[in-house]
Amino acid sequence: MLFGGLHDPNQLLGDTWIYPGCPIPRDNGDEQSCEPDLTFEVTQPELTRAYDRQAGVEYVFAVRITNRSYGRLQVQYFNARVPWRRRLYWPGVPGDSTRERPVYRFESGRTFSPVEVLNHRVRERFRLNPGESWEGLLLAYSVFDSIPKYFLHGELYDVRLSAVDQYGRWHWSYIEMLIDRTATMPALSIRRPGKGLFEKAECEINCFPSRAVSTPRPAEPQGNERVPKTAPPKEDEISKIQAQ
Fold this sequence. Notes:
This protein has 244 residues and is mainly β.
């Protein structure tokens, strides 16, 4: 049966057709049709950083995760999309048997207490009730590749943090992250390069006066010692000089 020249009346609304409480996803995967049920907010910008290393990157996200839905949610796992498109690994429950209290540890030596880390709050062990929030650190790392050079030290860049609930739904928010290249930046040299042997000698005289070579002074007389005086010329020697 035709309906206004169309075979299906639902085509009148196209992709805007929405069933009660069930919005249809947009074509663009980077845009959400409504506010997500799980949101991420940065709580400590000074801690939210990407630490560049020679063979990988370490990520610390200081965030607050809030359940804005009307039902209890269980986070299955976390994920993040960084501007340089690297796969991130999320460490689980630490199992360091050499310590009385296990800690999260990065390869760089940074350690974090499980009390302040949110990585292990996943699946059936932890549930987030409506309106509740978790506040802490999300830790991740990538291997083999460092941050590309065109991402500058000390600059802020957008990161998409996401989580998957027990129904398989994705929830994400965009946050800002600071780039930290302290471990890979070359050491700053304050010495001016010389141009040769004479430039080096001149620099030592001007910059380091104590190293400059000086003419030795005659020793000063000590006690009653007298300084010898030269005898005046004789009269015959004077007459010879005048005759010349």
